[in-house]
Amino acid sequence: MNGMKFWMVILLAGLAVCSLWAADEPQGVRTLAVLDFENNSLKDKEEMAPLCKGLADMFITELSKVRQFQLVERANLQKILSEMSLGQTGVIEESAAQEVGKMLGAQNLVLGSFMLMFDGKLRIDARLVEVESGKTLMAEEATGSPDDLAKLVTRLVNRNIESLNVELSGEEKKALRQADNRSFDAALLFARGLDFEEKGDLANARKCYVQALKHNPRFRRARIRLEALKNTN
After folding, report:
1. Rounded distance, CA 225 to CA 210, Å?
2. Roughly what angle, to the nearest 10 degrees, separates helices 184-198 and 220-229?
3. 3-state helix, strand and coil shares in percent for the chain, rounded to the nearest 5
4. How far apart are CA 209 and CA 225, in angstroms?
5. Cβ atoms within 10 Å of 68's Cβ, excluding its own
6. pLDDT tens figures, 37-74
7. How far, in Å, CA of 76 to CA of 95, rounded?
8. Shortest CA distance to 48 belongs to which of 59, 38, 58?
């Protein structure tokens, strides 16, 4: 009998440990891919062009703060687009975007556009699409001053999260309230750096990241990219 009690205690302890491990693992993880945004600006269109990549990176950064989301890396996305001969114009048709999502193994796609209007306001449109069905789960816009870029992105990211019925932890809510960068000038310089980097112009990419950090020394993403390029030719 004592032996049986001993093994029962061991079994219950093991189940308790397994339960703790399960609690630490994210349940129902969803894979999301964020495509480059389309530039529909009515003014300064060429100057705003780097935000196509910059906005996508901002969405990836914010959505990555949610444990239930696994974000497709930009390098993998660019590889698929290159193989499909897409993305050269910066515009991807919805049917092609759905195919890209399937090839990436993503369950949902985030895509959209932005527009710097004649009155100087910035409008961002974002859509959340279910890859398997092609159904649009969310379509929202946020408009404000370019200096409010981080707030506009946060608003749209939160709508993405709500549309997928994800319940955030207190820690995740806090992380989403803490934007990596709130300087529009720094964001635009960082976006230019991303553009240069993906084109293989690492020297100019470094310069852009350095300039972005001058505008915002706490810009973590810019510092990460600069460190990554430090030992490259």
Report:
1. 10
2. 30
3. 55, 15, 30
4. 7
5. 18
6. 999 999 999 999 999 999 999 999 999 999 999 999 88
7. 19
8. 38
Nearest-angstrom CA–CA distance, 105 and 99: 10
pTM equals: 0.82
Please state whether beta strands 136-144 and 122-130 pair in parallel, antiparallel, or not at all (unpaired).
Answer: antiparallel
Query: Position 172: which residue type?
Result: E
No. of helices (H) and no. of strands (E), the chain: 10, 6
DSSP secondary structure, 169-204, as one string: PHHHHHHHHS-S---HHHHHHHHHHHHHHHTT-HHH
Element housing 30 (H / E):
strand 30-34
Cβ–Cβ < 8 Å for 116, 42:
yes
Measure the CA–CA gap between 199 and 212, rounded to whole angstroms: 19
Lowest mean pLDDT among 12-21, 93-102, 113-122: 12-21
Q: In this structure, what token pair is assigned to residue 173?
A: 């809510």
Taking alpha carbons only, the member of 191, 67, 41 closest to residue 125 is 41
Within 10 A of 90 (CB to CB), how many other CB atoms are there? 12
Phi, psi (rounded to 5 degrees) for 80? -65, -45
Q: Quick one: tokens of 207?
A: 């310069």
How many CB atoms are located within 10 Å of the residue 196 CB? 19
Contact indicator for 114, 125 with CB cutoff of 8 Å: yes
Query: Hey, what amino acid is at 24?
Result: D
Under 8 Å CB-to-CB from 90, ≥6 apart: which residues?
A: 36, 38, 39, 49, 52
Nearest-angstrom CA–CA distance, 166 and 202: 38
Assign 108 to helix, strand or coil. strand
